[in-house]
């Protein structure tokens, strides 16, 4: 079955970015010249997905507006003969079909994904976190879709992290299938130090079998009093095969202040028009340190 839909939860409060995120959704903070969320959406589009489901909450309308057509802005740009900008703005509004679903209570990532069940239906689907960027030659989502074509089962993107940081992530234990690919045996949400030997951390990319919705509906609140996606994934892994994939690329947690700065640096160095002058500036800065 072709995977057509992707869910992007953007309902969180963005407390790690306060006060910047008090009035602006953290997903709308810019990386060089576009908001973080646009990079996420462009990855989905580049992977052949047809529909995006945003899981939103109060105060997140700026995200939906960014991908909507703005007649007034379009008219002003045309009147000022700024046709390149006009074309770029229109391109954003035509990237992909977008559906918004409101998460009415902040009950966790698992609950946020569950709210998309009526839109997704009985289809496998992708999940991308709205502040998790992956810089790669082949889109991370496309890499996962290729694995789904091979195994027809859920795939979770992972990366190896220092053992001192495993308590900050969902962690996967499992048997190696081949280099970079593991069959999942156990998943733990932010395990206490010393409770696992694995350092394979889950990042913000999932390809899920629709059976996850029934499991999420029965999942009780876990770590932090929220309905944890990791708990539901553990239950799904007991029922059918699941794979953990060490993706090719570099991941940035753009919802974290340091991760956000690292993302700006990395994307600026690859920018088609700014990279040259930016590299010169970095050399000057480094010379003064």
CATH topology: Spore Coat Polysaccharide Biosynthesis Protein SpsA, Chain A
- Approximately how much helix is present in the residues? 25-40%
Summing up helix and strand content along with how strands pair, one would put the structural category as alpha/beta
SSE topology string: EEEHEHHHEHHEEHEEEEHHEEHH
Q: Which outline best applies?
A: globular
- Order of strands in the sheet with the most strands? 8-11-9-10-12
What CATH architecture label applies?
Alpha-Beta Complex
| CA(first)-CA(last) distance | 54 Å
Describe it for me?
- The protein is 36% helix and 25% strand.
- It has helices at residues 36-46, 61-66, 71-79, 83-93, 109-114, 117-120, 140-151, 212-218, 229-239, 257-269, 275-288; strands at 5-9, 30-31, 34-35, 51-56, 97-102, 125-128, 132-135, 154-160, 170-178, 181-189, 200-208, 242-246, 250-253.
- The protein has a five-stranded mixed beta barrel.
- A hairpin with a 2-residue loop joins strand 2 (30-31) and strand 3 (34-35).
- The longest helix is centred in the last third of the chain and has 14 residues, at 275-288.
- The protein is globular, with a radius of gyration of 20 Å.
- The model has no long low-confidence stretch (mean pLDDT 93).
Describe this protein with a few key phrases:
Spore Coat Polysaccharide Biosynthesis Protein SpsA, Chain A; two-stranded antiparallel ribbon; 289 residues; globular; single chain; five-stranded mixed β-barrel
